[in-house]
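Hi team,

As requested, here is the filled-out complex form for the flavin-adenine dinucleotide run. I kept the field names the same as last time so the parser does not choke. Let me know if anything looks off before we queue the next batch.

— J.
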Amino acid sequence: MTISDSSASVVIIGAGQAGLSVAYCLRTLNLAPGRDFVIFDRGPGPGGAWQHRWESLRLGAAHRVNDLPGMPEVGLSFDTADQSRPAREVVAEYYRRYEEHFGLAVVRPVTVTSVADHDDRLVVSTSSEAYGERTTSTRVLVNATGTWGAPFIPHYPGAETFKGHQVHTANYVSAEQFAGQRVIVVGGGTSAIGFMLELDGIAAGLTWAARRPIDWRHSEHLDLEGAVAAVTLQDQAARAGRALPSIVSGTGVPVTPRIRQGIESGLLVARPMFTAVEPGGVRWSDGTLSAADVIIWASGFRPELRHLAALKLRAKAGGYSVEAGTSVLDPRIFFAGYGPQASTIGANRAGRVTARRIMAKLAEPDAPELPVPRG
Ligand code: FAD
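And here is what came back:
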């Protein structure tokens, strides 16, 4: 009986910073793209989640994207990228050139719908208009699916009765779509702050609400790697199999000159969260109502892992137990860009560590022969 249409030693799901980084590192360890490992990505083009981010988002200031490993060889660096162009265009172009230069042969647009355990193989089911429904069997799976496809909106009583428009960061297009409207922005991170700054002077009314007081940091960059506390909190939760905490709860928010201006002008003052949503607006704990036409939920994302449900890797504590990027329950499964690796610098580290561990896994006695090293 055939269990799959094709096979590869390694399947990588996702061609964002984490998936590309793993692919590059596997290639440097002599695995051939398209033969020894295959990358599936759901997106229409290169760019990972960045290709879907809103038009006004720029690189620089709070949004610093680390270079992928090997990028100097391509003659590219995000440090010198054009900050006047939308980040989504720049990142998509750089990833495209990177994929082409290293021949990473990403197969897209292909959605991984599920992964099943079949004896000693993992069977990856995919769906796409171009290739139809297919299965690929593999010894090792790298899940690098990021979070963009799993937007999170916390529950507030009455939210379903709101007569206005509710938008999550994932669906935000531009400030102009809210011109002349009364807007409530929810969230304590850089996305919420970016929306507040953009909507100032465009929205008819603007109110900011956050669950916690904003932890302003007097540095211009969101230095995720430097923010050891943030990485440690993520790591502890991942190891314990708990749901991951928000990144901003560990890093704080860097005060760029633009943000400083917003704070000093009184625009960037967050109110503690409202207690309920009503048809015409939001109700605060003091009983007052703010009338609103729009609520923008900049309330974050969760890891996108639905397609792994059949593997039953979810821990009792509600999350996935992951140590150094490897599933604790099933060492054939790697989580790149998960928890402590969920930044572009962390995703790069994921590449190095994961590729080495994959090679060790493939070298185990019951594994098929390793490919012959290329010239
Ligand atoms: P993604 O870039 O999300 O890539 C995942 C890929 O997996 C996507 O291409 C998607 O199409 C694919 N995929 C998902 N599910 C499937 C499936 N079932 N089948 C097939 N393909 C699938 N980090 C920074 O370091 N600097 C920043 O400035 C920064 N800004 C951010 C701004 C926002 C608004 C957000 C939400 C995050 C930001 N981050 C930032 C953190 C984020 O971790 C990085 O952007 C990083 O690029 C994520 O890389 P990734 O590869 O883990 O995920």
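Two things worth flagging: The chain has a mean pLDDT of 92. Residues 13-19, 40-43, 48-49, 53, 63-65, 111-112, 144-146, 148-149, 169, 191, 224, 301, 304, 307, 337, 342-344, 347 surround flavin-adenine dinucleotide (CB under 6 Å).

Thanks,
J.
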